[in-house]
Design brief:
heterodimer; A: 293 residues; mainly alpha; two-stranded antiparallel ribbon; 12 helices; 74% helix; B: 282 residues; 14 helices; 68% helix; globular
Chain lengths: 293, 282
């Protein structure tokens, strides 16, 4: 879409677009270029000298077991975050939508978790499940479940998933509720007159009409699980115990800063860039279709 | 409501209320923990109701910080977080509203290149290119400064797109009228476009304020001096001090203070917040 009426100035538009372009060049294109450049270099142990090695860093990553582990873990993790997050928020949204009058009131109570920083969310859930003072850990112990996320890898992963889902739930809820409220009431009424009960109406009318929103949220949640959960992981488990919660975005940071492996970390950055670009393209192609819908 | 099914309605209310309770539980426990003494918080099970130490705990973290010695008062980290959040929100809005204005209202050579250059930034979150971005900021000598905290984060396309979208919906007649009356482009921008964009600016402000306040990895990396620490990073850092006995009461008071400003912004500016969320995704 373009404007019909425009202004004619020679230098003004450059001046206006300048600040953003300069900042984008310096803090976006320069570092991204550097990541790509570093990813094909190996620095020798004493620093200073670096050698051009084509795709050696990538080859090394693909041979590396810990990278394969981290990649598999990230897939499992983002599947869990997206699946649980979408299921819970869909349930809440459908129930809130049923009680029309209450929906707006309930909405006010459901939006705030979005405002809590992921790192703080990690601290809150870590406190609830803390092996020595955590209230939920204590309750679980009461019914015979030993919960110690500090030493048990699976429990650590579960806890990170819970904290990540909690943080994202208001976002999903708001979009599902908006989607539900935009479904024409006449459709639902027609189905009711034809004798379809609430369950049937949900399965045959509401769910299919909601699927564009659901698909959009699925992509957003996967992007969130891939990249937005760094704070949760870092403040809860630091990727541990062992490497049980070391998702890819955490590994980039860990190898680059703690391990000082610039080439390897840059190669990981480049792979992640490709993943985000792919996901963004999927999201945009979908949004084009949503406009028609 | 299509038909009257009291049981289902009751069930719906119950499910939602139960969901709300589960969602609010972590924050309730955090609040409870922040109102007890350190001794109470070291015995399991910890209490479920608030205790008498509210004012004492909050005064201590605000003025002295978490530990007795050498810790940063939360008053200071809160101020830093506020500066960072406001800087990110205002900076982002300022640079993107003018660049959106240029891209929508002018035809100039290279316009589409600029548009795409900005568009691409939509794709790569800062976490992905964190190591080289750190290198760039270090090279520019911006470690341990507000500039280093804020400026790298305002390079992003979301706000530009929002404003571009909005400007495209502004009727052309207004521009024509302004031109007939002899208004310069900047005059048009200040007197017509900017006042019309108020709601979009408010929506963007809420989203970006939260984004800036909740930054974690970035301030963690580029600050080494306590005088630049932000509140979110200090909460997480203190939670991971393994050697000493944790003062849960103080830590949770800090966490409450770290959550409060963005939560208040969302609750009181709820309409702008929802609008911002939805519009950013358009």
């Amino acid at each position: 879409m373009e404007k019909r009426v425009t202004f004619h100035e020679r230098w003004l538009p450059y001046l206006l677009v300048g600040p953003q372009i300069v900042i984008t060049l310096v803090f976006f294109f320069w570092p991204s270029g550097q990541a790509i450049y570093q990813s094909v270099l190996i620095e020798d142990v004493f620093g200073g000298n670096s050698k051009f090695v084509w795709f050696e860093n990538f080859a090394q990553l693909f041979r590396d077991d810990s990278y394969a582990h981290s990649a598999r873990l990230t897939v499992v993790f983002s599947f869990l975050v997206a699946a649980i997050g979408l299921a819970v928020s869909l349930l809440l949204a459908v129930m809130a939508d049923r009680v029309v009058r209450g929906a707006t009131g309930y909405k006010a109570f459901l939006v705030w978790p979005y405002a809590v920083a992921p790192a703080v969310a990690g601290v809150l859930w870590g406190f609830l499940f803390n092996p020595s003072v955590g209230i939920i850990a204590w309750m679980l112990q009461g019914i015979g479940i030993e919960f110690n996320y500090v030493i048990n890898g699976n429990q650590a992963l579960l806890l990170v998933v819970i904290a990540a889902v909690w943080n994202q739930i208001s976002y999903n809820f708001l979009f599902f509720l908006a989607g539900l409220q935009s479904i024409p009431k006449s459709l639902i009424e027609a189905a009711a007159i034809d004798g379809a009960g609430p369950g049937r109406r949900f399965r045959d009318i509401i769910f299919p009409l909601l699927s564009p929103v659901g698909f959009f949220l699925l992509v957003v949640n996967i992007i969130y699980a891939f990249f937005g959960t760094f704070g949760v992981v870092d403040s809860l488990t630091k990727g541990g115990p062992g490497k049980a919660t070391e998702i890819l975005v955490f590994k980039v940071f860990n190898d680059g800063f703690r391990g000082q492996d610039l080439g390897g970390s840059s190669a990981q950055s480049v792979i992640l860039m490709i993943v985000v670009i792919a996901l963004t393209v999927v999201q945009f192609r979908f949004i084009e279709r949503r406009v028609h819908y | 409501m299509v038909e009257n099914r009291p049981f289902l309605t009751l069930l719906s209310h119950l499910v939602v209320i139960l969901g709300l309770a589960v969602i609010a539980f972590p924050v309730w426990m955090t609040f409870v923990a922040s109102t007890h003494s350190q001794q109470t918080m070291l015995q399991s099970p910890i209490p479920l109701l608030p205790g008498p130490y509210l004012i004492e705990n909050y005064t201590q973290v605000l003025t002295e910080g978490y530990g007795r010695v050498g810790s940063t008062p939360v008053m200071m980290t809160l101020t830093n977080s506020l500066i960072m959040a406001l800087g990110v929100a205002i900076g982002k809005i300022a640079i993107s509203i003018i660049s959106a204005f240029a891209i929508v209202y002018f035809r100039f050579p290279g316009r589409m290149y600029f548009f795409w250059a900005i568009f691409v930034t939509l794709m790569l979150p800062v976490e992905v290119r964190i190591v080289p971005t750190y290198g760039v900021v270090a090279n520019l000598g911006m470690l341990d400064s507000y500039g280093g905290l804020i400026i790298p984060l305002i390079a992003s396309a979301t706000a530009t797109f929002l404003f571009r979208q909005f400007f495209l919906s502004v009727p052309d007649e207004l521009t024509e009228a302004a031109r007939v009356d002899g208004a310069s482009p900047m005059r048009f921008f200040w007197d017509i476009l900017l006042p019309m964009s108020r709601t979009s600016i408010a929506a963007m402000f809420v989203i970006q304020f939260i984004y800036g306040w909740n930054q974690y990895l970035w301030p963690l990396l580029i600050t080494t001096k306590e005088s630049y620490y932000t509140v979110v990073m200090t909460v997480s850092r203190q939670a991971n001090v393994v050697d000493s006995v944790p003062s849960w009461n103080l830590l949770m008071a800090m966490a409450m203070l770290a959550m409060l400003p963005p939560v208040l912004v969302v609750v009181f500016m709820q309409r702008q917040f929802v609008r911002g969320l939805v519009e950013v995704e358009k």
